[in-house]
Design a protein that fits this description.
Blueprint (H helix, E strand, L loop, with lengths): L5 E5 L2 H6 L1 H11 L7 H11 L4 E9 L2 E11 L2 E2 L3 E2 L2 E4 L11 E2 L4 H14 L5 E8 L5 H10 L3 E14 L4 H6 L3 H17 L2 E5 L5 H18 L9 H17 L2 E8 L2 E11 L2 E9 L3 H4 L3 H15 L4 E3 L6 H5 L3 E11 L5 H34 L11 H4 L3
Parallel strand pairs: 6-8, 13-14
Antiparallel strand pairs: 1-2, 2-3, 3-6, 3-7, 4-5, 8-15, 9-14, 9-15, 10-11, 11-12, 12-13
């Protein structure tokens, strides 16, 4: 089979766009996560690709495209001096699952060609491939071929992704929870339905801009109250998620769902739905005091799970993060690994990578320290008000 396959490099935006139809066909046939879709990867590159080099490897057979390794190359300067050519997944740390997209039956031969191309063309000194599922269909095979070619490195679990494998009925799902928690969930749902008219409201394509803006407002509310910028406080990331939401809505993959109590939207889940799987990505709250005691965030997940069961769905995926409520609802871990592999002729890449990680930690620590110092200075500069608001600021400073 390998003799009938060929590998090519896609390195321009125009070539990327030209892949759209074949990428979608391969993705549909493979049935993989939305994070491996053309829509997610192309949108990410449009928003975040500036300053980096596109390096997508495609494998084609007699009947068309059979594999895509969606890489890009960045060249950070370690300690602000030494360049380190690094291949990463397109999608960055915003995608929860990253992998080689490969047609069934072609895993070994396609990944062998990709590994050979990475060795022969020498596009980078180091591969840093985070968030690759432990049970992935392509990257694990690619890793084997890279090691066989002399690449050196390690695979370490870097995050847990709890998933709830659904049973035919909600009663059976409840039966899979701890008895005390199953009782609590059932009680909260009964109590909420007793006191409110409960409704799931789904965003539609024609109302998407309004619904997306409301989701952003609800997601940001808690972060702003804590004096933090929040994920969607970044205009570039907010624009990316908006464009992804629209692209997914057009494909029928968007599950932007609001929990409404007596018609008022009190919680929102920004999720994706494909092939009987819901992937819950982000949430947000209206901070409604009357709804708070009913745990509306958990209840929205419960109601969304119930609706997925009724549709014959298979998995409710909570994605990255080990928050306790996910396990309380019966989820079990699916591990993601970080693959760190260097070329056999670049042993210095190990040292560069370690130095770069240390540099990043130092920069993040400096940013946190600076932010904390600014908060302290703000508190010092702003005098506390007295009970009757009559004490002037100068008196507080001892003047």
């Amino acid at each position: 089979m390998a003799k009938a396959l060929s590998v090519e490099i896609v390195s321009s935006a125009d070539e990327f766009d030209a892949l759209a139809e074949n990428w979608r066909a391969l993705h549909d046939a493979a049935g993989r996560s939305v994070f491996q879709s053309f829509e997610w990867n192309r949108t990410w590159w449009r928003h975040f690709g500036a300053g980096n080099v596109l390096h997508i490897l495609t494998v084609t057979g007699p009947n068309g495209l059979v594999a895509i390794a969606p890489f890009y190359r960045e060249t950070p300067r370690v300690l602000w001096v030494a360049p380190m050519r690094t291949l990463r997944w397109i999608g960055g740390d915003m995608a929860d699952y990253q992998d080689v997209l490969v047609a069934a039956g072609y895993e070994a031969d396609a990944c062998a060609l990709i590994a050979a191309a990475l060795l022969d063309d020498a596009p980078a000194d180091l591969l840093l491939l985070n968030d690759t599922p432990e049970d992935g269909h392509g990257a694990n095979v690619l890793q084997e071929h890279l090691r066989a070619s002399g690449f050196v490195g390690e695979a370490t679990r870097n995050v847990r992704c709890p998933r709830l494998h659904l049973k035919p009925t909600w009663k059976e799902v409840l039966g899979g929870m701890r008895p005390s928690h199953a009782k609590r969930v059932a009680y909260m749902e009964r109590n909420m339905r007793r006191n409110f008219q409960v409704e799931l409201q789904h965003a539609k394509l024609e109302t998407l801009d309004h619904d997306f803006n409301l989701f952003v407002e609800m997601h940001q509310k808690r972060w702003v109250a804590e004096g933090k910028p929040g994920l969607l406080g970044d205009p570039l990331k907010r624009a990316f998620y908006h464009d992804v939401a629209r692209a997914f809505a057009e494909r029928g993959w968007l599950a932007l769902v609001f929990l409404a109590l007596n018609g008022e939207r009190v919680w929102v889940n920004f999720s994706f739905k494909r092939n009987g799987i819901i992937e819950f990505y982000l949430g947000g709250s209206a901070e409604n005091d009357s709804a708070r005691k009913y745990s509306p965030g958990i209840m929205l997940n419960v109601l969304h799970i119930q609706s997925l069961i009724n549709e014959g769905g298979a998995v409710y995926d909570f994605l990255r993060g080990n928050e306790p409520y996910k396990y309380d609802l019966g989820a079990v871990d699916r591990g993601n690994v970080a693959l760190t592999l260097r070329r056999p002729d670049r042993p210095v890449a190990d040292a560069l990578h370690l130095a770069h990680r240390a540099q990043g930690k130092a920069e993040r620590l400096a940013q946190r320290t600076l932010a904390h110092a600014r908060k302290v200075l703000d508190r010092v500069a702003k005098p506390p008000a007295s009970a009757n608001n009559q004490i002037p600021a100068l008196n507080l400073l001892g003047v």
